């Protein structure tokens, strides 16, 4: 026990962390005496290729047994590369983000054998052991399939995968075989002929993972979901791009969005897969998930504005829009609104009546006004939250188990881009998370408070971010890391002040998992194992730290470089991988010190204005392309706020003068319910060829009896085809008689040989009380291609019962 404690302390790992036990075992017994895959990989980087091959061969085929080892082990990626952390004396060091990888030694063995021309030797060893009486058939099939894939023998690999599938998908064996099988699938994905076989395995794992009380451990469940979604997406891309009717455009690299996730010590040590998003012009789709996965718009926006997008709905596709530190979206029962922030969830909001049915997608709109963000789903307001001034970011949120999408996202209104953002201005700390799952917020481990003056500088009223000193054993080097969720981007700077008092108050900056130790007392203490990687400042900069005073630090990112300034002097440089996520963090050893930080400010070389809505990166231009040419049409335009000239319009409906009223905004229509009643306003126009018809409405309200409908709709009559094309904004109690539904619906009514037929090609939930109705015909549109002319355009109010109110704005016709 004495030796265990000594080893534990020397490597600075918390007693509650299982890494301390691992380190102690390695220190006491030595690497060579630990017969484990992890122990084997600690020798890896110092060996030649042939030595690595022999080491793997001895592990996969243990002497004196018939065993073929197909285990999977989690290994620090830096261990495979031979990296042991930074050392003093270097002015510029590489930042290599810590990553835990799942490694299958039998797969590495076959890779090495392929490079060295020794596949036949490995194949012979597999065949020899397969002939033994107690051989494990599943392990042998995995090894044989890997060999066939290495040789690109697709037919043989398909046969072997077919034999392997029932063995791996056995509920009693799947936990022990899933790691090596996922590695096999990853290798097989490069051969298109194997994709269907791979999807069969992945669907089995996916179904196991979705079960309550799943037989799969969490890390394998997440890897299985990620592999299933990723291969599905690649299958779609392959068919869409190379198929005979390819319509999907090129995949782009987004310029205006940062991908990031909430990662913790648990998710990193568990080897959870990294989140992945695929981007096309006007469309984001998630293909892999890590934990709580986010996309951040690249610049902060403040003021009064709106964000609107079409997002995926349910069936493991749930996606949420957010702003100001919050996100919100519907629960499966349509009666609850789930909501939360970067690090966690807030209490569920209950709705007084359920949302109308949400299909595969929904229209989500965020309205930011006067410091609050209101979320509307298909036009209905469901959530209103106070905006966090420390989080002025538009976000897209998705849980790890979902593979949703977002398209046609637009930011409109009057947004402005601030010159800087104070990251600790809000005591709720909504955009921050703790890597080691410490509590955050008021009266928590990390909190914003206004402390008493520490140094007589008159700063007692300045809000201070405080990381408490706590921990079971002082001197155990218990780690505490608070991270800001939005990554540090190119040409951006984070500056802050921190209080330093030797022995009691200290805090260190971090980028990702890399911590820069500012305290000269810590330079000699550089652990070689653990969740974080520690880097010292330049040796000649140690004297810059001012004891018992507030110090100033500044971190600047330029492309692939990070630079740290301490009290105005450059003390550290590091190269970074621009493809990785670089979250800023604050670190301290919470068993020894208190962290005090203030004036944490993010600034950047941000454009002061956003592009127009149709030029924004996620704006979809499908409709724009469809209606190209409108500007060349003859145009009829009328503002109903200017009156209703009866020489230009004719009215339909009995006693229409009793139900229409001129108001400042336009024409107001109100009518009590009854049997089928219709009132219309129709322009005295005829046109031929293509047309584009738009009508604005506002103040739509309706109350109907069971079985009734109330709508404002736009109708085009095509007499030569005896066809009416109608677009409704409707409240209906036809299907859901108890509560009714707010919808938008299209309809085509046709008379053929004296018989009237009804076709409703499109319907979606929509509760907006104002908006535009638009009908467009182009010769390429099959709905209108046989109808070269029409006689009338009408804006109609139609109802079955009770009372409703309409207000029309403007009517525009091009044709």
UniProtKB/TrEMBL annotation:
<feature type="domain" description="DUF1581">
    <location>
        <begin position="365"/>
        <end position="445"/>
    </location>
</feature>
<feature type="domain" description="DUF1583">
    <location>
        <begin position="615"/>
        <end position="780"/>
    </location>
</feature>
<dbReference type="InterPro" id="IPR046518">
    <property type="entry name" value="DUF1583_N"/>
</dbReference>
<dbReference type="Pfam" id="PF07619">
    <property type="entry name" value="DUF1581"/>
</dbReference>
<feature type="domain" description="DUF1583">
    <location>
        <begin position="473"/>
        <end position="609"/>
    </location>
</feature>
<dbReference type="InterPro" id="IPR011475">
    <property type="entry name" value="DUF1583"/>
</dbReference>
<dbReference type="InterPro" id="IPR022660">
    <property type="entry name" value="DUF1581"/>
</dbReference>
<protein>
    <recommendedName>
        <fullName>Protein containing DUF1559</fullName>
    </recommendedName>
</protein>
<dbReference type="Pfam" id="PF20407">
    <property type="entry name" value="DUF1583_N"/>
</dbReference>
<dbReference type="Pfam" id="PF07622">
    <property type="entry name" value="DUF1583"/>
</dbReference>
């Amino acid at each position: 026990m004495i030796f265990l404690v000594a080893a534990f302390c020397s490597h600075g790992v918390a007693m509650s962390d299982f890494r301390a036990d691992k380190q102690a075992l390695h220190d006491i017994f030595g690497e060579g005496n630990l017969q484990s895959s992890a122990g084997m990989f600690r020798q890896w980087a110092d060996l030649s290729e042939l030595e690595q091959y022999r080491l793997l061969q001895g592990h996969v085929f243990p002497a004196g047994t018939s065993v073929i080892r197909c285990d999977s082990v989690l290994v620090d990626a830096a261990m495979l590369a031979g990296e042991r952390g930074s050392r003093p004396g270097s002015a510029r060091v590489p930042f290599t983000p810590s990553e835990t990888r799942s490694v299958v030694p039998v797969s590495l063995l076959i890779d090495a054998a392929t490079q060295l021309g020794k596949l036949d030797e490995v194949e012979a060893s597999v065949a020899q052991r397969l002939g033994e009486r107690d051989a494990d058939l599943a392990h042998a099939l995995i090894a044989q399939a890997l060999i066939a894939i290495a040789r690109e023998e697709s037919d043989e690999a398909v046969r072997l995968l077919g034999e392997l599938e029932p063995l791996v998908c056995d509920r009693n064996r799947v936990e022990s075989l899933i790691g090596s099988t996922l590695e096999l699938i990853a290798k097989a994905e490069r051969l298109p002929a194997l994709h269907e076989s791979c999807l069969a395995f992945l669907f089995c794992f996916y179904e196991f993972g979705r079960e309550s009380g799943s037989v799969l451990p969490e890390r394998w469940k997440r890897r299985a979901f990620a592999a299933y979604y990723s291969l599905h997406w690649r299958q779609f891309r392959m068919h869409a791009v190379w198929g005979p009717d390819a319509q999907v455009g090129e995949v782009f690299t987004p310029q205006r969005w940062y991908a990031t996730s909430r990662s913790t010590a648990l998710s990193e040590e568990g080897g959870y897969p990294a989140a992945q998003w695929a981007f096309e012009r006007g469309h984001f789709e998630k293909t892999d998930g890590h934990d709580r996965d986010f996309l951040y718009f690249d610049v902060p926006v403040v003021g009064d504005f709106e964000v609107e997008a079409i997002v995926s709905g349910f069936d493991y596709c749930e996606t949420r829009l957010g702003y100001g530190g919050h996100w919100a979206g519907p629960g499966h029962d349509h009666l609850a609104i789930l909501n939360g922030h970067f690090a966690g969830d807030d209490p569920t909001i209950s709705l007084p009546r359920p949302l109308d049915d949400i299909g595969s997608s929904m229209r989500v709109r965020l309205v930011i006004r006067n410091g609050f963000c209101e979320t509307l789903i298909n036009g209905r307001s469901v959530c209103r939250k106070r905006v966090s001034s420390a989080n002025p970011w538009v976000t897209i949120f998705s849980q790890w188990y979902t593979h949703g999408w977002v398209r046609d996202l637009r930011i409109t209104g009057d947004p402005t881009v601030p010159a800087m953002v104070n990251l600790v201005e809000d005591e709720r700390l909504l955009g921050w998370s703790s890597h080691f799952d410490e509590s955050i917020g008021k009266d928590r481990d990390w909190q914003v408070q206004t402390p008493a003056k520490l140094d007589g500088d008159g700063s007692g009223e300045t809000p201070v971010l405080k990381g408490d000193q706590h921990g079971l054993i002082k001197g155990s080097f218990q780690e505490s890391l608070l991270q800001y969720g939005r990554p540090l981007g190119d040409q951006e700077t984070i500056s802050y002040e921190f209080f330093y008092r030797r022995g009691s108050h200290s805090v260190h900056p971090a980028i990702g998992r890399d911590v820069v130790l500012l305290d000269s007392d810590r330079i000699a203490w550089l652990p070689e194992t653990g969740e974080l990687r520690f880097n010292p400042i330049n040796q000649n900069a140690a004297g810059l730290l001012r004891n018992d005073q507030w110090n100033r630090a500044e971190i600047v990112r330029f492309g692939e470089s990070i630079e740290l300034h301490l009290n105005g002097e450059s003390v550290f440089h590091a190269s970074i991988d621009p493809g990785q996520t670089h979250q800023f963090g604050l670190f301290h050893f919470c068993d020894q010190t208190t962290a005090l930080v203030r004036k944490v400010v993010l600034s950047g070389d941000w454009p002061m204005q956003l592009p127009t809505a149709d030029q924004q990166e996620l704006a979809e231009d499908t409709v724009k392309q469809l209606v190209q040419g409108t500007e060349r049409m003859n145009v009829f335009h009328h503002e109903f706020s200017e009156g209703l000239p009866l020489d230009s319009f004719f009215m339909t409906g009995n006693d229409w003068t009793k139900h229409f009223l001129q108001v400042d905004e336009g024409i107001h229509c109100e009518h009590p319910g009854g049997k089928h009643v219709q009132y219309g306003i129709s322009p005295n126009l005829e046109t031929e060829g293509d047309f584009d018809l738009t009508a604005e409405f506002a103040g739509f309200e309706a109350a109907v009896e069971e079985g009734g409908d109330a709508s404002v709709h736009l109708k085009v009559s095509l007499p030569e085809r005896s066809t009416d094309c109608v677009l409704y904004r409707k409240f209906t109690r036809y299907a859901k008689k108890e509560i009714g539904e707010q919808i938008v619906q299209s309809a085509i009514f046709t008379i053929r040989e004296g018989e009237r037929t009804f076709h409703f090609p499109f319907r979606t939930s929509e509760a907006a009380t104002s908006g535009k109705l638009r009908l467009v015909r182009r010769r390429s549109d099959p709905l209108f291609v046989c109808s070269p002319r029409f006689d009338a355009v009408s804006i109609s109010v139609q109802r079955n019962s009770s009372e409703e109110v309409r207000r029309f704005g403007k009517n525009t016709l091009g044709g």
